[in-house]
Amino acid sequence: MTKVTEYGRANIRQKEASPGLRMSPRAIKAFAVDVDGTLLDSDHRLSVAAKEALCDLAASNIRIVLATARGPGVLGTVLRSLPISPLLICFSGAWIGEIDSESLTPTRTVLDRRHSLSVARTILATALGLNVEPNVFTLDTWRARKMTTEIMLESQITECHPVITSDLLEDGEEPSKILLITGANESSQPLHVIADSVQSLSNAAFSKPNYLEIVPLGVNKAEALKQLAAILGLDLSQFAAIGDGLNDIEMLKEAGLGIAMGNAPDAVKSVADWVTGTNDEAGVAQAVQRLFKDGLI
């Protein structure tokens, strides 16, 4: 049975409470938030309400964590919009650290997991065999063979541009992530075939229906959150996590409080403790307001 509570401009739905969800007052000490489709609206902008909500958390000594499939090098626009310095989980958990928001160079690295070159070559060959153009990311580079319509759109969203090269592994640096994108109006079936093909070599998860994020085996946002919790001296039960994508599912399940966005697919909503408004309704801000209202902060 689902309980519905009226809150803000949209309903925030909460699962019927279970013993594991009965949290003590001021139980939340850290807040992990996905970026695209969660913190940012459909125009890929940070709303005033979402920004103020994160500032309110920081003012209450809550650690802010951006947990994203993006790499550090394509977070500049987001970080410069924030008056705080969040901890970062990048590449869906393959990299954890902090970066300078101006130079985008790491100031602290906690974790840096990468594909081996042999695994990367296998993934690239599989993708190209199905006519899907790969995007190869390291900590500070983004490479593609050609500028497709989909890659151009991603470039506009992130305000960054890939290096166009025929050799995606030309410097011999092991990649952190391989991103595969199909057209929004095209079949995503090739991506599902690729995900099945590489599952023994890597972790492939969808951040959007046409975005397949391929990271090293064993990597996901939940595992990264566990490592970050240990470093911060916190328990996962003290984390609230909010997201909208299939690659957020593990994080929402493992955090003490999992919050799904209203624009998330049902598979994400079904594992969450709360469902907040959409990213165009400042769902992050609504969730933060409820944390304060319920005495969890």
Short description:
By secondary structure, the chain is α/β, with parallel strands linked by helices. It has ten helices and 16 strands.
Would you write up a description of this structure?
The protein has about 300 residues and is of the alpha/beta class. It has helices at about 35-40, 50-60, 75-80, 115-130, 150-160, 190-195, 220-230, 250-255, 265-270, 285-295, and strands at about 1-5, 10-15, 30-35, 65, 85-90, 95-100, 105-110, 135, 140-145, 165, 175-180, 200-210, 210-215, 240-245, 255-260, 275. The longest helix is centred in the middle third of the chain and has 13 residues, at about 115-130. The protein is globular. It starts with a strand and ends with a helix.
Determine the structural class based on helices, strands and strand pairing: alpha/beta
Largest sheet: 10 strands, mixed
Q: What is the gyration radius calculated from CA atoms?
A: 19 Å
Tell me the number of structural domains. 2
**pLDDT under 50 segments (min length 5)?**
1-22
Structure annotation, total helices: 10
Helix content: 25-40%
**Per the principal axes of the C-alpha atoms, what is the gross shape?**
globular
CATH architecture annotation name of the largest domain: 3-Layer(aba) Sandwich
CATH superfamily of the largest domain: HAD superfamily/HAD-like
Tell me what portion of residues adopts beta-strand conformation. Answer: 25-35%
Largest sheet, order of strands side by side?
1-2-16-15-14-3-4-5-6-7
- By CATH reckoning, the class of the largest domain would read Alpha Beta
Distance between the termini: 27 Å
Assembly state: single chain
Might you state the CATH topology name of the largest domain?
Answer: Rossmann fold
